[in-house]
Amino acid sequence: MRQTALIDHVLADAITTTTAAGVVAAAADAGGCIYEDAFGRRSLTETPRMTTDTVFRIASMTKAITGAAAMQLVEQGKLSLDQPAGEILPFLANPQVLLGFDGKGNPILRAARGTVTLRNLLTHTAGFVYDTWNEDMNRFAAETGLPAARTGKLAALGAPLGYDPGERWEYGINIDMAGRMVEVASGLDLETYFQRHIFAPLGMTDTGFVLRPDWENRLAVVHSRGEGGTLTPIQSARPAENPEFYPGGGGLFSTARDYLIFLQALMHGGTFNGSRILRPETVALMGQNHIGDLNVLPMLSYKPAMSNDVELFPGMDKKWGLTFLINTQDVPGRRSAGSLAWAGINNTYYWLDPKRKVAGVLMTQVLPFADQGVLNLLDRFEAAVYQTVG
Fold first, then answer.
1. Is 78 one of the catalytic residues?
2. Residue 153 appears among annotated catalytic residues
3. Catalytic hit among 35, 130, 163, 171
4. Is 386 known to be catalytic?
5. Which of 5, 27, 78, 262 allows an S-S link to 360, with CB 3.0 to 4.6 Å?
6. What is the percentage of the chain residues whose pLDDT exceeds 70?
7. What would be the CATH architecture of the domain defined by 5-75+192-389?
8. pLDDT-derived band of residue 227, with 50, 70 and 90 as boundaries?
9. Cβ neighbours of residue 265 closer than 8 Å, sequence gap 6 or more
């Protein structure tokens, strides 16, 4: 293994400056894992230190795994990127668009123009939005009691669209819909499907929707950043028992080590640890721009306790693949143009650089999302990885 003192320094420094209570990071190049280590503690108020097998709530990092599952079914002919999603999920056959509210506060809805497809869902162009970053949907959820997708209640999938399919890019519950399509098309719940067709073949032994008893003592605590930058441990909701569906847009528990295995499988064209989960041409397709002339837009927060405003790589046009953010320009000293990335709301992050064959995972548990201190740490960690790789 290469000399990794520079990466160690970057991560250790983040703990001493209270960027996070603790952090676990891992990175790989074409030859395999080049870095894995842990710093700090799982909670500021408890003794256990972070370890490389610490379990994290990875939230929207679930999306890429759901995308891989959907593309497995595309390979098998059980799903198609451009077929009407309503053929699999009948409630998507006639979606409605939320236009606003009348004088009495009642939602104003109209029939959507256009058809929702799996490609729309995987690229966040179907029209579904998140109430965290959409003012009208925030109000709609408050007025109607619409449950969040993370509750595992099928009623959550009854949300209206924020705009017509294909009209624009906006982050939303689209991939929860895609995950439900996987469940219906495969006949398996998403937990079972993932375990059989992705996690077991790759050797991802510490990833799943169901919080296992042996994870309890390895689970990192989420911290909320208050005014002045202080961090306070907070109680996180436990996953729903006996959910009606598993939310493909978020909800997995995992480790940095396991997620790096998944990224290495994508890095190597769908194969890792002697198992193939996707064909090379499918992986390549997932990494292409699928939103055409549309651009990934800034995400303005309407739930400040959950997320700051979000704009990664400000000033750069960003595209979206089949579940991935794609930077369109080289980032000096860091990832190449065409790299794939995303994150989880508790400030967990990953990237995969297909050109240089470099991947990295950075795990913290901090709210709100897009924490500037953690983003700065991600930049420094990434730069240190590339300097180490050479």
1. no
2. no
3. 171
4. no
5. 27
6. 99
7. 3-Layer(aba) Sandwich (3.40)
8. confident
9. 202, 271, 272, 273, 277, 278
